[in-house]
Amino acid sequence: MANGFIHSFESMGLVDGPGIRSVVFLEGCKLRCKFCHNPDTWTKCGKTQMSPEELVKKLLRFKTYYDKSGGGVTFSGGEPLLQPDFLTESLMLCKKNGIHTCIDTAGVGLGNYDEILKHTDLVLYDVKHYTSDGYLELTGCDISETLSFIDALKKNNTPIWVRHVVIPEITDSKSHIQGLRDYIKTLPNVKKVELLPYHLLGANKYKSMGIPYPLEGVPAMDKETCKALQTEFFGGYAK
């Protein structure tokens, strides 16, 4: 039985899927996104390890809140797909105990996606960029792995909420958002699209870790402008 490397745990989240949710932040990520606000989750430090049984026992304490609100558990990170054995076992146990399951992912893991998605009720899919060049520029990685995950999403027809970070002078133009909309039309079973305004809340983490902040000097995205783009291009999707 695989133990999970867990960075942190949020018991009553309201923005990572429907209803009241527990959010399990797993350690490890292959991507080095310029706008990442959790660089402290990139590597597996192993400060907190937990078995799937231990985790689900903890989650069951909050099941009344899940049931009353239509909530459940969201596995986030880092990148939850980098711990496929622990993730799969945890998802299976959640489903056996009647807990709604969600993964918040960029779709860059170690494979075994079909097995993972069998036990996943919802995917919060983080579209970093929709072109190969743009993806490489923003994440430092090739787009091919996330395309493999999309193939699995299509095969399993898992419900998706798409998320995309809007960054001033990088991903905030109307032509970019139009391209994003065209790209999203190729994805299966998209139930919701969320444009997320880029913020500076993670900048201090880089300083404390002694690493340069990739978007130094780039201002936070204006929330009202982001909201207007949401309405103009994705008004037909649920909010």
Could you give a quick summary of the protein structure above?
This protein is an alpha/beta fold and 239 residues long.
Written description of the protein model:
- It is a single chain.
- The protein has one domain: Alpha-Beta Barrel (TIM Barrel).
- Helices cover 35% and strands 21% of the residues.
- It contains nine helices and eight strands.
- It has helices spanning 52-59, 63-69, 84-96, 113-117, 132-139, 144-156, 174-184, 203-209, 223-234; strands at 4-13, 21-26, 49-50, 72-76, 100-105, 122-126, 160-166, 190-197.
- The protein has an eight-stranded mixed β-sheet with strand order 3-1-2-4-5-6-7-8.
- The model has no long low-confidence stretch (mean pLDDT 94).
Helix content: 25-40%
CATH-defined superfamily: Aldolase class I
Helix and strand run: EEEHHEHEHEHHEHEHH
Total beta strand runs: 8
Strand fraction equals 15-25%
Q: What profile does the largest beta sheet have?
A: 8 strands, mixed
Total number of domains? 1
Spans with pLDDT under 50 lasting ≥5 residues?
none
CATH architecture label: Alpha-Beta Barrel
Describe the global form. globular
Give the neighbour order of strands across the main sheet: 3-1-2-4-5-6-7-8
Overall pLDDT, averaged?
Answer: 94
Number of helices: 9
Radius of gyration: 17 Å
What CATH calls the topology is: TIM Barrel
* Helix and strand composition category: alpha/beta
CATH level-1 class: Alpha Beta
